[in-house]
Amino acid sequence: MSNSSVNRATFDEVMVPTYAPGDVIPVSGEGARVWDQEGNEYIDLAGGIAVTALGHSHPGVMAALQEQAAKIWHVSNVMTNEPALQLGQYLCENTFAEKAFFANSGAEANEAAFKLARRYSWDHHGDGRHEIIAFDGSFHGRTLFTVAVGGQPKYLDGFRPGPEGVRHATFNDAASVKEQISDRTCAIVVEPVQGEGGVRPADYGFLRELRRICDDNGLLLIFDEVQCGVGRTGRLYAYQDYHVEPDILTTAKALGNGFPISAMLTRADIAASFTVGTHGTTYGGNPLACAVARRVLELVNTKEVLDGVPKRQQRLSDWLEAMAEETGLFRDVRGRGLLMGAELAAPYDENTKAFVSAALEAGVLVLVAGGTVLRFAPPLNIPMPDLNEALDRLEAAWKALS
To answer: Quick check: keyword Isomerase in the entry (predicted)?
Structure first.
């Protein structure tokens, strides 16, 4: 139990009201379990929004942070540092990429990707070719540029005008993409699995067709793997599961298992357009973050962890399907790997938050996506007994609620 003098009311007193956090304040965690200020225990099926891929207080990740903390924390980008170079090497050796750029958040990685796409097009095609095609329901971050590219207009309300040169097509509909292409198009950006948009996986054929469209029209294909990357689908990155290689890929969230870091990955010929001074970040490539991220990747990118993802996915999806059939709570169950969504059926979809609150009361953390979808993104290595216990708790709570 915490002896802290701060509580949920403190948030309303001192924090800008951009969030509406629940009453529970977690103060410690281990593995897939966390404890709040009152000592109550919860099983974490949310993963800090698909971030804590290895769970809480993982000893290997903590050791990497502690080892680096005793060496050097920050040097800025006036100089490079060993952890950044080692992380860059690892990513280039284990993905399609030949070059890496490090930042601090998914939004920053996407901002860099969109800027690079425009700069590359400017270098090779001149001024007029700058438009980016994205998809309805997509989410790419909260900067003004990334919000404009994202396919959820509500996030631009009150902030217009957003940056120009963005078009939106229909997710999983290649024909709608072709209708948007013009001599002004430079790139297409897609999430292999839309997270915030309701846990909607891309069809395999759809991503293959996007690759063909880009090749035929000289466009860059950008994969936003901020939420679905780093083992979430059972491969290190989702593009490896889809067997479709992008030109640029962004990764964040689970990359640091909770320590802020992101990366933009690309080929050398494309990276060449980011010459000295064209883009930058003070904290990007921070030694602490890079040391942690490399250890996270080394731990996730193992047969034990990656092969365990589909086994846990099967248990979770079987349970969700059974609940849907028995109670009528869900009208659709979907996802890839351990990024799963259960869309509530009417009339339950009118009060999604009630199901999240009931889960919390039962000692389980879950998420919402797309307004009416219950989202699950547990640690990739969640012990099966913990997963089974969490589902037992949810079943009792949600049956009582329905």
So the answer is: no
Q: pTM, whole model, 2 decimals?
A: 0.95
Q: For 288-301, what is the mean pLDDT?
A: 98
Cα separation, 231 vs 16, in Å, equals 34
Q: Which of 262, 242, 292, 210 is nearest to 96 (CA)?
A: 242
312 is in an annotated binding site: no
Cα-Cα-Cα-Cα dihedral sign, residues 280, 286, 289, 292: positive
Q: What is the percent of the chain where pLDDT is above 70? A: 99
Phi-psi region of 116 (alpha: psi -120 to 50; beta: other; left: phi over 0): alpha
Determine if residue 183 is labeled as part of a ligand binding site: no
Whether the CB-CB separation of 380 and 54 falls below 8 Å is answered with yes
Query: 146 a known binding residue?
Result: no
226 annotated as ligand-binding: yes
Q: How confident is the model at residue 162 (pLDDT cuts 50, 70, 90)?
A: confident
Structural domains of the chain in order of their starting residue, each with its CATH number: 8-57+303-401 (3.90.1150.10), 71-300 (3.40.640.10)
